[in-house]
Each structure stands twice: as structure tokens, then as C-alpha cells.
Amino acid sequence: MERDPAHRTPLLHNAVPDPALPLRACLLSGGESRRMGRDKALLPHAEGRTWLERTLMLLGQLALPITLFSRHASHRQLAQAWAAAAAAHLEALAEPPPWEGPLLAVVPTTAALRAGLAAAVDGGERRLQRWLLTQPHRAVRLDGAALRNCNRPGEISPEPAPPAGPAPAPAPA
Predict the structure, then answer these.
(1) Angle (deg, nearest 10), helices 51-60 and 73-86
(2) Which residue among 2, 22, 23, 129 is least enclosed by CB atoms within 10 Å?
(3) Is 115 helix (H, G, I), strand (E, B) or coil?
(4) Are 131 and 117 in contact (CB under 8 A)?
């Protein structure tokens, strides 16, 4: 059952695309979900549908092209079906073996960025976040209340439902 969208916490507060930066939303969805015991992306979300579809819906609100990177064909197929229904621009890419994690998913969009990443790796850099901080960017403030990280079954619980409205007035005596 999907909740009223008016009760959702906005994810982004200053999401205005900068035309000077080649910006797209990227979603890495190729993990094994070992700690969860089953595929996290396909678990039902409290707002309806799956966690993958909810995440895509939130990314879709940014009005940016979306790239999904996953080794799971079921994730790519679900994302493509979501994109068709939402009329969103989505590219679903298959992560090639050996499935060593998200660093392999970083594919800079320009020759200059690819050369910069290659030079950093050749120079011994192994921290993606440190390299990213050297790149032109614009900080986007995220509302922490709208973000959740769930790795084990006990960490998934439905969010409390918002109040239905003001309490009815007591009956006159």
C-alpha cells in the first residue's frame, strides 16, 4: 500500500542541475546481500513496491538521467520496466565479472575525467571519495531522515505511519 506522497520527506533541498557539469544519478545495485540473507533491492518497501523501485522513484524526482549498474538481470529488468512506466531516462548496465564491488562501476563521462582517474590510480590512489573531491562538483545537501541503510533483516522495519489528522474533539458532556 503506497503512502500519500505529501507525507514523504523531501530527499534533496537544493537540487538545481548545473549545466556546466555532466550530471547523472547513478545507482549501484549489484551486491550479494549476504548479511541480509536475501536480495535487499527486491524486498518490499513500506511505501509499496520494492526498495529498488522506491530508490529509482526518488532518483527520478531529480529530473536527471539515471544509470543503474548491477550484475543482477532481475534488477536491470525491473529498473527498465519502472523507467518505461515513469517515462524516465534510464540506462541499465550489466556489471561484468569478477564482481569486485562498486569501484568498477565508476565510469567517468568525459575523456578528461577518465584520464584523471587513470592518473590517480597509476599514482597509487585507491580511495574513490578522495579522488572525487578533486573533481568539479556542487554539494547537494541530503536530508538524513530520508536515507536508510539496512544490511540485516532486523534493520528493516516499516516507518511509522504519519498521523491521520487532528484528533476528534471530545463529545460534549
Answers:
(1) 40
(2) 129
(3) helix
(4) yes
Residue at 46 is within a domain: yes
Residue 124 corresponds to which amino acid? G
Helix H or strand E encompassing 90: strand 90-94
Does residue 10 lie in a domain region? no
| Structural domain containing residue 86 | 22-102
Nearest to 106 by CA among 84, 75, 135: 135
pLDDT tens sequence for the chain (173 residues): 344 444 444 444 444 445 555 678 888 887 788 888 889 899 998 888 999 999 999 999 888 889 898 889 999 999 999 999 999 999 998 877 766 555 555 556 677 877 888 888 888 887 777 888 888 777 777 777 777 677 777 776 655 444 444 555 555 55
Q: Tell whether 5 is covered by a domain.
A: no
148 forms beta bridges with none
